[in-house]
Amino acid sequence: MKNIYKHIFLALVVGLIVGAIDALFGRVLIWITDFRTIHYLWLLPFLPLAGLLITWLYHRFNKESLGGMTLIFETRLDKRKDIPLALIPLVMVGTWITHLFGGSAGREGVAVQIGATISHWLGKKCHLPDNSKILLVTGMAAGFAGLFQTPLAATFFAMEVVIAGYLDVYALLPAILASYVACFTSNFLGLPKFAIDLQSTLSLHSVHVIGSILILGIAFGLTGRLFASVLAKAKTWMKHAFPNPYRRIGLVSIPLAIVLILLFGGRYSGLGTNLITNSFTHQTIYAWDWILKLGLTILTLSIGFQGGEVTPLFSIGASLGVVLGSLLGLDPLLCAALGYAAVFGSATNTLLAPIFIGLEVFGGVNMIPFTLVCIIAYLVNGNHSIYTAQSKVIY
């Protein structure tokens, strides 16, 4: 019982600290995104130099931190004992630089790494039994929740993502407490939450709608699977083709920068929030938006730029949903919402987290379609994940 109280207290502390750091990280990233959008012609040509700077920072101050999410997974699986505290400033600064100069990347990896590193450090200081697991999951949940302000999705993401097919339910209480505290803290400190009030609903009483749900689930599942498998192969190939990390990021980012400039004026740079906004505000979405964002994000991350994958996955799913909704004769906005959640779930090989994303971002009126599409996408994915260190339960 005494340890439960300690876990609850530490969960509150972790939520406050991580929520505050998420607010700082997120607000700076928003400013950077707005600044780059205006001045992209002046910033994108320097993407190769930005890549060299990021690589130098990691190799100069803490090369081990390059492991990123892999360090978190290995710690949870008892394959390592420590996560370097240097990871926090390095991943934050590296991600800011990546986005300032136009790399196509996300942000959730940063938040999850920050939360896990802080909670793991606190757990070691307090010498709690099994702290490396309970507090690590708690910190991951707080990091995700503070950035996206979806505490339920964050809690279940942290509990199910490390070992696919298994839930770290013993961490449920501290994880959900830390998630809500981090969510409220980051919101109080001015970090906005993305949410859409969907007006339309899907009735599952027609063959057309049921068939469309099946098609959407398969398409979103295949898209997440494609992203995860190609990203893993691209990272391996890049390391083999360019063993020197400076040459890898310096040389490959030259054509990357040129392509990002030429393709619709930096449309595919950064998080992809522009595509998400367009998807839900009846603005222009091209049929090729999702595949170009997918390819350029994979290229950006495979050569060593920092960030994450989840927000680009949201944008890929949403823009693909608009296209498929128009083809299937369904509301494109609703299909964009389904894609937003399901492609994320497929690529991360998680099931409950994307369903709760649908609930917390888009409301509960379409929970049955969200659940069905996410289940289908999860099954179609076939155990592929953007997190190569993810363990799988084999029955």
From TrEMBL:
<keyword id="KW-0472">Membrane</keyword>
<dbReference type="GO" id="GO:0016020">
    <property type="term" value="C:membrane"/>
</dbReference>
<feature type="transmembrane region" description="Helical">
    <location>
        <begin position="83"/>
        <end position="102"/>
    </location>
</feature>
<feature type="transmembrane region" description="Helical">
    <location>
        <begin position="134"/>
        <end position="157"/>
    </location>
</feature>
<feature type="transmembrane region" description="Helical">
    <location>
        <begin position="355"/>
        <end position="380"/>
    </location>
</feature>
<dbReference type="InterPro" id="IPR050368">
    <property type="entry name" value="ClC-type_chloride_channel"/>
</dbReference>
<feature type="transmembrane region" description="Helical">
    <location>
        <begin position="7"/>
        <end position="32"/>
    </location>
</feature>
<feature type="transmembrane region" description="Helical">
    <location>
        <begin position="38"/>
        <end position="59"/>
    </location>
</feature>
<feature type="transmembrane region" description="Helical">
    <location>
        <begin position="320"/>
        <end position="343"/>
    </location>
</feature>
<keyword id="KW-0812">Transmembrane</keyword>
<protein>
    <submittedName>
        <fullName>Voltage-gated chloride channel protein</fullName>
    </submittedName>
</protein>
<feature type="transmembrane region" description="Helical">
    <location>
        <begin position="169"/>
        <end position="189"/>
    </location>
</feature>
<feature type="transmembrane region" description="Helical">
    <location>
        <begin position="209"/>
        <end position="228"/>
    </location>
</feature>
<dbReference type="InterPro" id="IPR014743">
    <property type="entry name" value="Cl-channel_core"/>
</dbReference>
<feature type="transmembrane region" description="Helical">
    <location>
        <begin position="290"/>
        <end position="308"/>
    </location>
</feature>
<dbReference type="GO" id="GO:0015108">
    <property type="term" value="F:chloride transmembrane transporter activity"/>
</dbReference>
<dbReference type="InterPro" id="IPR001807">
    <property type="entry name" value="ClC"/>
</dbReference>
<keyword id="KW-1133">Transmembrane helix</keyword>
<feature type="transmembrane region" description="Helical">
    <location>
        <begin position="249"/>
        <end position="270"/>
    </location>
</feature>
<dbReference type="Pfam" id="PF00654">
    <property type="entry name" value="Voltage_CLC"/>
</dbReference>
